[in-house]
Amino acid sequence: MKVENLKITKVSDTQSGTSKAGKDWSKLTFVGETNEEYNNLYAFELFGQEKVENFNKFNKVGDIVNVEFNVNTREWEGRYFTSLSAWRIDKAQEGTQAPAQDDNGADELPF
Prior knowledge:
The protein is mostly beta strands. It has 1 helix and 6 strands.
């Protein structure tokens, strides 16, 4: 799946640890929003030290990006948990615009 022209609004601190199998892991969550009227807020996860380092090196809050991701759902004790796992993040093309809002928080009208 792909989301285009996502404005990064928040980047969490990197979480890390060691799995039961003894492997080290790193995880980062970043949040962004689009210009869409509905369903415009996304929280993506990045797993792996290299992905986390590359994200931090090339992206920051306020950047406009395109994100390709997988949707993962897991069941645990009868409850379901869904996550969006980003696997590719590119800068959006020049000329794209971030979500525009006036002082009241409503989208600006073109007329």
